[in-house]
Amino acid sequence: MTRPGHPHPDRHRRLRAAAAVVLPALLAAGCGVKPTGVVESGRPATLTVAGEGDRSSMIYLIGPTGLITPVQRHHYPPYSAPDLLRLLAIGPTEEEQKVGLRSDLPTVPDLKERLRPAVIDYPSGSGGATRATLAYPVADLTEAARRQLVCTIAFSTSQGGRTPVILTGPDTSLPPTPCGIGT
After folding, report:
1. Which residues pair with 49 in a beta bridge?
2. Which of 10, 139, 141, 160 is paired with 172 by a 20 to 30 Å CA distance?
3. What is the pLDDT of residues 15-68, one digit of tens each?
4. Residue 84's beta-bridge partner residues?
């Protein structure tokens, strides 16, 4: 029995069921996004990053997430540590920049000064540190720039990059620092 002026209970159920079906369909249809086909945008950027093999020709750049990333520089025989530091001073290639790699090393406007070779002094015994004497001040280098230099030198001068590195510039010498990547 229904009271006068009130709809039948079955009608309430039917209205709720209809609303449950129609409302989501209306919301989905009214979102304004029209379907499209595949949109071509060219080839994806690619970059070869170092594996676990020979890291003697690697420079270390900063990746898009801020992490230090080894990047291979192909050359035979492998580049020397001073050569790799010159490559690091030049910075990432155009292709490397396209995939978000960068360097945090200071920009030295004078190309001749920027490419002046670093002096690398190797440890005389086990447990010693490699000293890299650079042409530019080292005290104000960012942590990322220090890690770029230390890892590039460590992996170019010792198997596995385990030897700590002392960065020396015309202003000061920094304490021995390990790379901390892959060790």
Report:
1. 71
2. 160
3. 566 555 554 554 555 555 555 555 555 444 444 444 444 445 899 999 999 999
4. none
- State how far the Cα of 165 lies from the Cα of 123, in Å rounded to an integer: 10
User: What Å distances lie between residue 147 and 40, 70, 157, CA to CA?
Assistant: 38, 11, 15
* 34-38, 92-96, 136-140: range with lowest mean pLDDT: 34-38
Whether 117 contacts 128, CB under 8 Å: no
List CB contacts of 150: < 8 A, sequence separation 6 or more.
165, 167, 177, 178, 179
Position 36 scores a pLDDT of 57
What is residue 160's DSSP assignment? G
**What's the CA gap between 103 and 105, in Å, rounded?**
6
State the pLDDT at residue 47. Answer: 45
The alpha-helical segments, DSSP class H, found in the chain are 9-29, 81-90, 94-98, 111-114, 143-157
